[in-house]
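Final report, Chapter 2: Outcomes

The project's central promise was a pipeline that accepts a single protein chain and returns its three-dimensional structure in a standardized token representation, suitable for archiving and comparison. That pipeline is now operational. To close this chapter, we reproduce one record exactly as it appears in the project archive, with the input sequence first and the structure output second.
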Amino acid sequence: MENVEITNEKALKALEQMKTYCSATNLDELNYVIKVIKRLKDAGVTDPLKADFSAAKN
């Protein structure tokens, strides 16, 4: 993966665009990922790949 800065907003935009081309069998999974990214964004997690979730509550 290139060293390109990806924000939650960019990722969400790309995922929403992918819904257009997604097969129906994977649409639920794609919607799930979109919800996860939105929740992380709403929780203030700006870089999920570098975040430490070890102390997170379920």
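Archive annotation: The chain has a mean pLDDT of 88.
This record, like all others produced under the grant, will remain available to the consortium after the project formally closes.
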